[in-house]
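Supplementary Note 3. Input sequence used for the single-chain structure prediction.
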Amino acid sequence: MSPNVKKHELADDEKENVELTIKPKPIKLFITSHGGAIYAALQVVDVIHSLKVDVHTIVVGYVASAGTLNYDIAYRVLQETSKNR
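The predicted structure, written as discrete structure tokens, is reproduced below.
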């Protein structure tokens, strides 16, 4: 760093404002599934619920059984978060 450049530290309240102004892009989850293990599908549901960013699910081809659960849950989470904004 050159001697003429001063490093600016953000205060805690400034850091919070910066974090709130940066809106991340939603995650696009493309699904093609003939089904599968319900426990694996429930793990995906837990991850979707834990994310702070929106997850948009897009069905490519077909989706059945456990894949339908993942599609439906992500859609419902998106609806709930949209209502709370």
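The two ends are 41 Å apart (CA to CA). The chain has a mean pLDDT of 76.
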